[in-house]
Amino acid sequence: MALSKIDVANMLTGLVPNDNTIRRPNAKPLIINGDMMVAVRGTSTASITGSDVFVVDRWRLDEGADSTITMSQETLSSGNAFDNGFLKSLKVLFTTADSSLASNQSVQLMQHVEAQDCQLFKYGTSNAVDLTLAFWYKSNVTGTHVVTLDKPDSTRTTCPVEFTVSSSGTWEHKVLNFNANDTIKGSSGAIANDNGTGLRIMWNLLYGSDYTSGTNGSWTQGGVGHFSTSNQQNIGGSNNNYVEVTGVQLEVGQFTSSTLPPFQHEDFGDNLARCQRYFYLNNTVDASMPFASGVVNGTTNSRAVMRHPQPMRNPPTMGRSGNADFKVFCGSTNVDSTSVAFYYPNNYQALLYVDVSSGLTNGQGCVIIDDGGGNAYIQGDAEL
Fold first, then answer.
1. What is the CATH number of domain 279-381?
2. Which CATH architecture is the domain 7-275 placed in?
3. 45, 309, 254, 8: which is closest to 133 by C-alpha?
4. Sequence ranges of the domains in the chain
5. What is the pLDDT of residues 169-228, one digit of tens each?
6. Fold match between 7-275 and 279-381?
7. For a Cys staple, 112 with which of 69, 90, 184, 197, CB 3.0–4.6 Å?
8. CA separation (Å) from 373 to 283, 299, 327, 366, 377?
9. Cα(307)–Cα(368) distance, integer angstroms
10. Which residues have CB under 8 Å from 32's CB, separation 6+?
């Protein structure tokens, strides 16, 4: 089929016709896993009462109140979000309410955007750009909700924007503008060009009065006190209150619901690979598949190089299951491990030391495998 002049023009400008997808040459979506498809840690965590909790990859929950929360990846089969191509969502459910907030209490759902990926915003210069955040959102709590962009570098600068949940338990599409003002254009509005946090996108679920001095739609330098506005509702005020979100996109420019570019869907493999820059989980669940390969040093020690599936943001914090979940396979011998440790992890690989009580042959090649029970795992964490 011949392409029309319009189709050719779209292809040259990065718009691929007939696939409902924006293809920006050499660019990926600013939000990673905005369709909530990747959840390698599992699909649900209950009884959350602390910070730095992840279920859906890249999406972090901080609980700093007297509430208890279940966070889960949900499968969609109906509703407006499903009808617009989204099959998964992230749900935050308050299983224990906190109806009487102390001034310093907070609960927030967020994604950290790496600073070197934020340089196109030109913050700290007179050319700082407007941003548009769009997402599908569902809650049983109607009324005013707030989402905030927080720039922690240099002088902390925040911009809360209010939006309204009109109908309980219904998927609604929100398109919010975060317009550059003189505050974010000033030199202290700059974002460092490094691999730290450049911007946080935060859904404000519960905030005490210490955090509610922000001005709707305005970038302000006032520390954490300007995270939200005084109109923010306490989403955790009653048991079984919830919010659910999917289809999150952050676009450079000022858009409306009618001019917003379509959500940029990635294939699952690309989405997973981008998530693995920050966290990966290797659980082979098959005794014949190795975690790492190396060489025996003596009769009780093995040393193996384990490569991360993707170059990581930072040398990761390594984690693993128990010592007894691993074996050293050397020649025709499988020997149970007594100790598993990591040394010298960098962005690309780590050295794995696995010791046994006896039975190895010095100088032979070896692989580190599951003990046969399917419980062994290794993980690397370089989250922002």
1. 2.40.10
2. Sandwich (2.60)
3. 254
4. 7-275, 279-381
5. 999 999 999 999 999 999 999 999 999 999 999 999 999 999 999 999 999 998 999 999
6. no
7. 197
8. 11, 24, 11, 20, 11
9. 13
10. 57, 58, 111, 271, 274, 275
